[in-house]
């Protein structure tokens, strides 16, 4: 049992007067900008905050947002969801995952559909709940479909450690953990035949604070240094985001290009070294991870180390898992949205064929997806 | 419409509406049902008639249990049509192996709540099914009430009217989430589960002309406001800061990525009155719950929509909740 002591943790960070004051500062500073700036908020959590609290409405014309790829659900390619679906449909499997993941449509349907067809699909608040499920169902195999960025990886690593140390025989893992810096590099480096290059659009990054709570701000060191892109690691409350944007605007008018931390109350340069050690004990980089809409991004995904292959559902169930890569619906422009090339409203099926109740693209599925945020909070106003 | 029914179809939001309209309303079509009110108004406006089934996990929670819920829920649906609850039926489906002690506890709890409403159970049914066929215990209650305030309707809202809530929102949903397996938060939070007829009677006795009234159950206050905006083809402009939410409810919402206004309530209602009745209605509500509040106004800005105004000058739409309420990933 844990005590609930969240009182007043957020009140100040949603204060109307403070938000208005930051809007004023940003507006004043933005007048001094030589060129408009495009800030990519890497994480879907930031997109959600920006839309939910209407922060877009407070921005001057020359400060734009590009919505980045940072939503664990949005970036999951269909073939991985198909893996989850196939595993869930195995007779003796209980498929366990986190929240929104159960809504994402694969080629046969979502995990929610699998559940409606009789599969035992459960969502948990913490991966550790898998232990209880496994103990209560000794004749079944619990497959934990692990998703998320640096934030959720340590929780999976803790579960792996428990499974090994307690010799729990009936928990397997399907690992889909991905990492933020590699995809940021991809977004800067990659080129598209239709446009000059992506890097003409992203001028700065707003980094997600929860990732850096684990990994430290050090993971962004190279962006100001090697790529000329300033980064501010920011919290998720509206005051945090406004301050983070203000810090970035100030860097541009003062002609600085640095890594700064807005969320100093929790984040430091090194991060949580214990969590990092735990992750490195059990996981290693995959050569390539295919991101939905973005394609293969080198070293952006994690997998269980070979020595733990007996816990790897992808190895154990190799014979039943599909291997073909599946392309997105051809009218869906999630890929361009995740790259910051297009706004959700530029998609021809946005809000018509593709809605939160009938999502076609992944950005509409998760509440943290850019399309879902635009649909829920942003249309018409 | 999806090929199979999913949990999302029972969320009290968008998918739930779709299922009801495209399957049940399509085949049961009639003028009374089409009004889609909390309870059907029958016998030339003399009686209100409603039914509800109750499935909740856990069965016992802080401030209530499934029995209290089963009486409150149906009596409140009657009260929301300005009716005094009178007669009720009670039908239970029990999973074999269920403890008779717990069953009696639940029935006693129903009795207490019936007394508060002044209603009696006049007919019932009991079914026992093999283990695994239902989750412990399901209860259905049907109620009949005598209408004492006529013409309450979700379609009667007009520009300039005021919107109030009877107390702070989201406590039932948050209490249930806090008690769920896997979360088990230590909190002093209690469900708002309560019979609402006494409060409605107080409003009627104070001569307040109630325009629209609805208890904000599944789908929360969001669902009620959206339904009213659509039914009356008006815009509801809500001042976000005035929506009363307990600190602990806010805390749970923060942790799990929910909004209190989307969470279920079992003893909270939304009220629409003319502007001139606003303060008097507020005074009556305050006598029961100090947290009651005037939260918004009916306008014509975006017809059929609900707008949330923030204290920092931004606006956004408040949509119907969609999908299954799932905790966020990170």
Automatic annotation (TrEMBL), chain A:
Top-level taxon of origin: Bacteria
Keyword Acetylation in record: no
UniProt KW keywords: Iron, Metal-binding
InterPro entries per the UniProt record, alphabetical: Hyd_form_HypD (IPR002780), HypD_1 (IPR042243), HypD_2_sf (IPR042244)
Keyword Hydrolase included in the entry's annotation: no
Gene3D superfamilies: 6.10.20.100, HypD, alpha/beta domain 1
Family to which this protein belongs: Belongs to the HypD family.
NCBIfam families: hypD
UniProt name for this protein: Hydrogenase formation protein HypD
From TrEMBL, chain B:
Residues of the PurM-like N-terminal domain: 37-147
InterPro entries in the record: HypE (IPR011854), PurM-like_C_dom (IPR010918), PurM-like_C_sf (IPR036676), PurM-like_N (IPR016188), PurM-like_N_sf (IPR036921)
Organism domain of life: Bacteria
Domain PurM-like C-terminal residues, every copy: 158-308
NCBIfam families reported in the protein's UniProt record: hypE (TIGR02124)
Family: Belongs to the HypE family.
Name by which UniProt lists this protein: Hydrogenase expression/formation protein HypE
Origin species: Sulfurovum xiamenensis
This protein's encoding gene: hypE
């Amino acid at each position: 049992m844990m005590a609930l002591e969240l009182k007043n943790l957020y009140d100040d960070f949603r204060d109307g007067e403070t938000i208005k004051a930051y809007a004023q500062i940003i507006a004043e500073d933005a007048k001094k900008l030589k060129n408009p700036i495009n800030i990519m908020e890497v994480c879907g959590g930031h997109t959600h905050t920006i839309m939910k609290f209407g922060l877009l409405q407070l921005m001057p014309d020359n400060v734009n947002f590009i919505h980045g790829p940072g939503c664990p659900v949005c970036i999951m390619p269909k073939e991985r969801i198909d893996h989850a679906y196939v595993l869930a449909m195995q007779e003796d499997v209980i498929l366990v995952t986190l929240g929104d993941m159960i809504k994402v449509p694969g080629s046969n349907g979502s995990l929610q559909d699998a559940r409606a067809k009789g599969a035992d699909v459960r969502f948990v608040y913490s991966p550790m709940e898998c232990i209880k499920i496994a103990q209560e169902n000794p004749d079944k195999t619990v497959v934990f479909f692990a998703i998320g960025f640096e934030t959720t990886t340590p929780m999976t690593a803790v579960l792996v450690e428990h499974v090994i140390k307690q010799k729990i025989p009936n928990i397997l893992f399907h690992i889909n953990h991905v990492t933020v810096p590699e995809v940021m590099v991809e977004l800067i480096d990659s080129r598209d035949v239709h446009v000059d290059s992506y890097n003409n659009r992203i001028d700065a990054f707003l980094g997600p604070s929860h990732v850096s709570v684990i990994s430290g701000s050090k993971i962004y060191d190279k962006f100001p240094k090697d790529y000329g892109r300033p980064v501010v690691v920011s919290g998720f409350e509206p005051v945090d985001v406004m301050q983070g944007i203000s810090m970035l605007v100030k860097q541009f008018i003062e002609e600085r290009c640095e890594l700064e931390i807005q969320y100093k109350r929790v984040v430091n340069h090194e991060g949580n070294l214990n969590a990092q050690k735990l992750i490195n004990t059990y996981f290693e980089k995959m050569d390539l991870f295919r991101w939905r809409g973005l394609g293969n991004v080198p070293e952006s995904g994690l997998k269980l180390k070979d020595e733990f292959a007996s816990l790897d559902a992808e190895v154990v169930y190799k014979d039943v898992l599909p291997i073909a890569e599946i392309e997105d619906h051809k009218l869906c422009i999630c890929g361009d949205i995740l790259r910051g090339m297009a706004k959700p409203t530029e998609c021809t099926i946005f809000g018509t064929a593709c809605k939160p109740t009938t999502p076609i693209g992944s950005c509409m599925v998760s509440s943290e997806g850019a399309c879902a945020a635009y649909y829920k909070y942003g249309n018409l106003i | 419409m999806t090929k199979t029914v999913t949990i999302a179809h029972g969320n009290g939001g968008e998918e739930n509406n779709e299922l009801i309209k495209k399957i049940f309303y399509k085949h049961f079509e009639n003028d009374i049902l089409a009004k889609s009110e909390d309870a059907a108004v029958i016998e030339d406006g003399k009686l209100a008639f409603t039914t509800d089934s109750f499935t909740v996990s856990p069965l016992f929670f802080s401030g209530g249990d499934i029995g209290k819920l089963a009486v409150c829920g149906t009596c409140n649906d009657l009260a929301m049509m300005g009716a005094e609850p009178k007669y009720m039926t009670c039908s239970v489906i029990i999973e074999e192996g269920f403890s008779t002690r717990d069953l009696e506890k639940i029935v006693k709890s129903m009795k207490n709540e019936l007394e508060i409403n002044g209603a009696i159970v006049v007919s019932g049914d009991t079914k026992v099914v093999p283990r695994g066929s239902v989750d412990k215990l399901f209860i259905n209650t049907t109620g009949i009430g005598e209408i004492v305030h006529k013409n309450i309707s979700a379609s009667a809202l007009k520009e300039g009217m005021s919107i109030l809530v009877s107390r702070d929102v989201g406590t039932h949903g948050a209490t249930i989430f806090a008690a769920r397996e896997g979360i088990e938060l230590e909190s002093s939070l209690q469900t708002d589960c309560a019979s609402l007829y006494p409060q409605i009677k107080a409003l009627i006795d104070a001569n307040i002309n109630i325009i629209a009234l609805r208890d904000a159950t599944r789908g929360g206050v969001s669902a009620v406001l959206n339904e009213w905006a659509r039914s009356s083809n008006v815009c509801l402009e809500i001042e976000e800061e005035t929506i009363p939410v307990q600190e602990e409810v806010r805390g749970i919402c923060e942790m799990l990525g929910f909004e209190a206004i989307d969470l279920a309530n079992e003893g909270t209602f939304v009220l629409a009155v003319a502007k001139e009745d606003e303060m008097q209605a507020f005074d009556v509500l305050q006598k029961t719950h100090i947290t009651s509040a005037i939260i918004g106004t009916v306008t014509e800005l975006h017809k059929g929509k609900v707008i949330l105004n923030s204290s920092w000058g931004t606006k956004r739409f408040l949509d119907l909740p969609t999908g299954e309420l799932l905790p966020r990933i990170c």
